[in-house]
Automatic annotation (TrEMBL):
GO terms for molecular function: glutathione transferase activity. InterPro entries: Glutathione-S-Trfase_C-like (IPR010987), Glutathione-S-Trfase_C_sf (IPR036282), Glutathione_S-Trfase (IPR040079), Glutathione_S-Trfase_N (IPR004045), GST_C (IPR004046), Thioredoxin-like_sf (IPR036249). Residues 1-79 form the GST N-terminal domain. This is Glutathione S-transferase. Homodimer. Gene3D superfamilies: 1.20.1050.10, Glutaredoxin (3.40.30.10). It comes from Acetobacter ghanensis. Residues 84-214 form the GST C-terminal domain. The gene is gst.
Amino acid sequence: MRTLFHFPLSPASRTVRLVLGEKRLPFEAIVERAWEKRPEFLALNPAGDVPVLVEDNGLIVPDVYVICEYLEEAYADIPLLGRTLAERVEVRRVVAWFETLFAKEVSGRFIDERVMKRLSGRGNPDGGALREAYASMRPLMQYVNDLAENRNWLGGHFLSLADFTAAAHLSCLDFIGDIDWAKVPAVRDWYAKMKSRPCFRPLLGDRVSGITPPDYYTNLDF
């Protein structure tokens, strides 16, 4: 069986888990604490990051971008990038927005300060960094709310990789209780649709030592 090395509160890892689930591709999930720099893991991915997918035939596919593009090419019966060039451009644009701007300004900061620092022994959260993340979060979440309000799905009129990427980032923030859903009602309604998909169910069962998600994290209807 294919194997995915991941970490539960890694948005990149969650994106791949969602895509594998949506494409109905079975896999074994192995939690990897990448900061420990295991030689066996570095042999799979010298960059030392999760996720890393290992196929049944031994093919090693590292990095969320590479994995998602690979899965789209190798298992094209359930397409997640769109049919036309314009659709694929827009889906990739939204994906890149989350993986670059949103990750840098919001999700990456919160996860590093609230989760990774403690787990990797790098001290306590930096209050200044968290305040900056909250300040950045407001306009960026409003942009996501505008997308959700004016489209069927975030990438356009069809469910796509844009939705799974967004859900991966927002579900991590939801796990640590850093989203005020009342301020982004269209995002809340879109996220409820995502949570109800079968591929999302395993994420609702994720747990990380020392961190308790809010009660509504597992509630499909908030």
